[in-house]
Write a structure and sequence with these properties.
The structure holds three protein chains of three kinds.
Chain A (H helix, E strand, L loop, with lengths): L1 H25 L8 E6 L4 H15 L2 E6 L2 H9 L5 E4 L5 H7 L2 E12 L1 E2 L9 E2 L1 H9 L8 H6 L11 E5 L4 H13 L1 H6 L12 E3 L1 H11 L3 E3 L1 E2 H6 L3 E2 L1 E3 L5 E2 L3 H7 L30 E9 L5 H12 L16 H12 L5
Parallel strand pairs in A: 1-2, 1-3, 6-12, 7-8, 7-9
Antiparallel strand pairs in A: 3-14, 4-10, 4-14, 5-11, 12-13
Helix pairs in contact in A: 5-7, 12-13
Chain B lengths: L21 H43 L9 E2 L4 E2 L2 H32 L2 H16 L2 H28 L14 H26 L2 H9 L4 H30 L2 H6 L17 H8 L6 H38 L1
Chain C lengths: L17 H39 L5 H5 L12 H32 L2 H16 L2 H13 L6 H26 L2 H9 L4 H29 L3 H6 L18 H10 L3 H33 L2
Helix pairs in contact in C: 1-11, 3-4, 3-6, 3-8, 4-6, 5-6, 6-8, 7-8, 8-11, 10-11
The chains are: A alpha/beta, B mainly alpha, C mainly alpha.
């Protein structure tokens, strides 16, 4: 009799464990209590942080977002370990296929700043694309190099080694930065290329926007590329970049706004959203390293309905949270494009 | 290990009397079955892990074959991947850590067993154990914020001043690189290795050391000639176990090594190890080939760990066999 | 320290030979090196602990323990990470310990010597699998397609805990005298009853010590959790079917930040983790010493 009891107990325990693990495995990332999980770009994190409480109030959606880098955002949504991925780099054709019917929607617009840590300069650093490429190619190694002196005759450049810092994780900011350098330097394009993770020939790697910002703040002579919201929050000085109009532009709202002023009247594909190194007609203050940042959503998943609400809110009301963090509200043409893409997100 | 002879099983003594309580066998069989299932499950789990790693690495194994191991490349843009830079990084950081950790560990163990009076030895032994208990993420935090900058501002310039003619100390000091990572690994290996060495030294038979002393050797000579020689296989095993720990350490290393892509002679340069690269890039792998290549690194890491582990165990087993035969 | 040499006739001319002096110097030198090594170890421990305490103590206020991790540019604490870590470690113990004890029982009581050796090797190899590989394994078989969850994190940690507890249990079981089992069997108790009611209770102290030590090790593991429970909401939650924030991953993230407030939180969180690990280790020691009556 007792053994029968014990045997039943053991069986019941086994069944319970099986049920629990089964439910854990079967539970989708979004449950019926409207909670969404997303990951990816650290670029957009400051803005998403502001959205989390607001979206909770507007729709009762419990939004969770963590930064892992754009690459991880793409990988995460492809593997369906999260409900949506955020990336500053649009998907390549291969990645789009691998994602299996995902849409890529631009939902914020900002710029990549170039902060540096050089004491005693006596003014803001001015730099152009060619010099920046050469620094990251390892051809310019000291702050008192002639090329930098030429652009900054009024500054006192010290004899200090340059430490270029790059993102060691898969990053959309790297994509944006290398996109710019590849378009202004053919040597950079052939030697390093344009991707979320590239083989930088020199420099120190660090994880995340926070990581590169951390290294720069601790290392004299360091410079890096990081979204402007991080530069602002950490009180970094960032460089003014020479644009095609011959003037030196800063990554402020006006600089970003001018950078996107040359978009076509009707945006029909993502490839038209490349805004680095804008043409002369964009304006004297157009900042050359601006970028859209995207949300990647599977068109048919259990959480599609909630994600649809989230993205729609983000590209409309969400934009108002942008300016204090130096996110320029989306231009109307891009908003229209976003609406068309959002419609593709069906419910299950 | 004891296996109880089943002839002592309940009811056996009553065999033939018709009073065997067959019902009791059910409990025994069930229990044994459950224990067996747990054991088989553990063995199966190990196999499953190995299988899954190879399975996930397959796209890269297929594409690059064995030459992946000695190819120096890591370019996600052109989809060229090779493990050499990370094998080099793993080997170099572990080697530096071992060369530093082994003498220090032996020194600590000798201090605790031979030199220190008991009242001093016990708290110091506890403190060394506590060093082992510090989680690697805390060591990494300390490494990024305190140790790395100190290495860059004081240690590396010092080494460059006096030994700068050596190519390994060339280049400019950096707070993230091979040297800080190797030093952090040393801090992680020392407690484990010294604990094992201490156990070994305590087991050396007194009469052997006394004999050496009686023949006129100094304390140190008896230690060198008898204790260390006697414990040598065990020390080798301790070294290998420490090595295994160093190979697999991902978190603390990735925080201080700087994520470099190439092989550099200088120890001040950034680099990467197998475990550290896996930690920093796996989640962000944007193509099947890159994800597969990172898993290929994991497969190499597992193979290296396995070999080190097995060799350590073989040494220990042979050591024990020889001891028993003596 | 009295060597035999010191009782030799002091008028013996060999004492004045260079050979013995050199050997004495070597001996003193080695002694200094040994003391130096021990001091270095103690010094590093003091340095690391001291830094953690010094930098972390200021951030330890009531808010730190009651507020969840902050969003970008806000204030916060580690309350959600503490809850998450506690839940995950608790689940890990529930998953790992029964299986580990069963494996140890099988090895000690039922298996033939060859199978026992085989299982010992399996456990040792499992122990040597790097934590990051275990994390990738669980990610590959469970997280892909289903999302992260605290349960998956606990499973990954359980794989790390299993060999430790199994080995500790096996060693304890072997120490228990055979006569205990044989007496029980001779009285007609079934084998499984013997094991569960006689042997295991005698072993409980040692098993508990092993579990406590394993918990101290596993509570600080970061790598497996990075892949299984790292994307979690910045609020205190007990929903184990979703990812929960954990202390080690929080420290890992804080460490990278350029924001001094984040770094201070990192130090404070490290202090909490170290205190937990140290207290657990000391508890295990006290417990085992009490048991063996030292």
């Amino acid at each position: 009799m007792k053994k029968a009891l014990v045997a039943t107990f053991a069986l019941a325990a086994l069944v319970a464990i099986a049920l629990v693990s089964g439910r854990a495995a079967a539970a989708p990332a979004a449950t019926q209590d409207a909670s969404l999980t997303g990951t990816g770009s650290s670029f957009v994190f400051p803005l998403v942080s502001k959205w989390i409480p607001a979206v909770g109030q507007a729709y009762g959606i419990n939004l969770t977002y963590s930064l892992t880098g754009s690459g991880a955002g793409i990988a995460g949504v492809t593997a369906r370990t999260v409900d949506f991925g955020a990336s500053d780099a649009p998907l390549s054709a291969d990645q789009l296929t691998a994602c299996k019917s995902c849409v890529v929607i631009p939902w914020a617009l900002s710029a990549t700043s170039i902060p540096y840590n050089v004491p005693g300069l006596g003014g803001r650093l001015r730099i152009d694309g060619a010099t920046l490429s050469n620094i990251y190619l390892g051809k310019i190694t000291n702050w008192n190099d002639a090329a930098i002196k030429k652009l900054n005759p009024k500054l006192s450049l010290p004899n200090l080694k340059i430490t270029p810092v790059f993102r060691s994780d898969s990053s959309g900011t790297t994509y944006n930065f290398t996109e710019y350098l590849s378009s202004v330097s053919s040597e950079f394009r052939s030697k390093v290329g344009n991707n979320t993770a590239v083989n930088f020939p020199t420099g120190v790697g660090a994880r995340g926007s926070a990581g590169v910002a951390g290294v720069v703040s601790k290392t004299e002579g360091a410079l890096t590329y990081v979204d402007v919201a991080y530069s602002l929050t950490n009180h970094f000085t960032f460089a003014a970049i020479k644009n095609r109009a011959g003037a030196y532009a800063l990554p402020g709202l006006r600089g970003i706004k001018q950078a996107v002023s040359q978009l076509p009247k009707k945006v029909t594909s993502l490839s038209q959203l490349k805004i680095v190194d804008p043409p002369k007609s964009a304006g004297k203050q157009a900042y050359p390293i601006s970028t859209f940042t995207y949300v990647i959503v599977p068109t048919n998943s259990k959480s599609a309905g909630d994600v649809r609400k989230l993205v729609y809110w983000a590209v409309t009301q969400g934009q108002q949270f942008g300016p204090p963090l130096l996110f320029q509200p989306l231009p109307v043409t891009v908003q229209a494009f976003a609406y068309r893409e959002i419609k593709k997100i069906q419910g299950v | 290990m004891s296996t109880i002879d089943d002839s002592a099983a309940p009811g056996a003594g009553l065999a033939g009397t018709g009073l065997e309580r067959r019902g009791l066998r059910l409990g025994d069989t069930l229990f044994r079955g459950v224990a067996l299932a747990a054991s088989a499950g553990s063995a199966f789990l190990l196999g499953w892990i190995a299988f899954k790693v190879l399975d996930l690495a397959w796209p890269s194994i297929e594409e690059f074959g064995l030459s992946f191991i000695w190819t120096d490349a890591w370019d996600p843009v052109t989809e060229q991947f090779g493990a050499l830079a990370f094998v080099y990084g793993t080997a170099l950081t572990s080697a530096i850590a071992l060369v530093l950790a082994v003498p220090i560990s032996i020194g600590i163990a000798l201090f605790l067993t031979e030199l220190a009076p008991r009242r001093v030895a016990a708290p110091i032994a506890t403190m060394v154990e506590l060093l082992a208990a510090i989680p690697s993420v805390v060591l990494g935090l300390w490494g990024i914020l305190v140790f790395g900058p100190w290495v860059a501002q004081h240690l590396e310039p010092f080494l460059q001043n006096y030994l700068g003619f050596l190519p390994i100390f060339s280049g400019s000091p950096s707070q993230a690189g091979i040297l800080p990572a190797a030093l952090v690994l040393t801090i992680m290996i020392v407690p484990i290795a010294s604990a094992i060495c201490r156990e070994l030294f305590l087991r050396v038979p007194r009469d052997l050391t006394d004999g050496a002393l009686a023949l006129g050797s100094t304390r140190w000579e008896s230690i060198r000639g008898v204790t260390l020689a006697y414990a040598a296989p065990g020390i080798a095993a301790a070294v290998l176990l420490g090595l295994g720990r160093a190979f697999g350490e991902a978190i603390a290393v990735t925080q201080v090594i700087g994520g470099g892509n190439s092989i550099n002679v200088s120890w001040f340069a950034t680099g990467d190890t197998l475990a550290s690269r896996i930690a920093s890039q796996y989640q962000g792998a944007t193509s099947q080939l890159q994800a597969g290549s990172i898993l290929y690194l994991a497969a190499i890491l597992m193979a290296i760990s396995l070999v080190t582990n097995v060799v350590a165990q073989v040494i220990v087993r042979r050591f024990e066999k020889a001891r028993r035969a003596a | 320290m009295s060597t035999v040499a010191e009782t030799i006739d002091p008028y013996d001319i060999t004492l004045r030979s260079n050979g013995l002096r050199r050997r004495r110097i070597t001996e003193k030198l080695m002694g200094v090196l040994a003391i130096g090594s021990a001091l270095a170890a103690v010094g590093i421990l003091a340095l690391v602990l001291g830094t953690v305490i010094y930098k972390g103590i200021d951030a330890l206020d009531a808010d730190f323990f009651t507020q969840p991790r902050p969003l970008f540019g806000a204030e916060g604490g580690i309350a959600d990470a503490l809850v998450g870590s506690a839940l995950i470690v608790a689940m890990c113990v529930i998953f790992a310990v029964p299986v580990a004890v069963l494996v140890a029982i099988y090895m000690a009581e039922y298996a033939s010597p060859r199978v026992s050796v085989f299982l010992r090797i399996v456990l040792d190899v499992l122990n040597g699998v790097p934590a990051i590989v275990v994390g990738i394994f669980i990610f590959g078989i469970l997280v892909v397609g289903h999302g992260q969850s605290a349960i998956f994190g606990a499973l990954a940690l359980a794989i790390l805990m299993l060999p430790m507890v199994a080995r500790a249990t096996q060693e304890v079981l072997e120490v228990i005298p055979r006569s205990l089992r044989e007496a029980s069997l001779a009285l007609g108790v079934t084998k499984w009853r013997t094991t569960t009611s006689i042997v295991l209770p005698a072993a409980v102290g040692g098993i508990l010590t092993g579990v406590v030590i394993a918990v101290a090790r596993v509570a600080g593991e970061t790598a497996p959790l990075l892949f299984t429970s790292s994307i979690a909401a910045n609020q205190v939650s007990t929903d184990v079917f979703h990812a929960l924030p954990t202390l080690p991953v929080a420290i890992f993230t804080f460490a990278d930040s350029a924001d001094p407030a984040d770094q201070a939180r990192g130090w404070a969180a490290a202090l909490v983790l170290i205190v937990f690990v140290l207290v657990t280790n000391i508890l295990a020691k006290v417990f085992s010493r009490g048991r063996t009556g030292h």
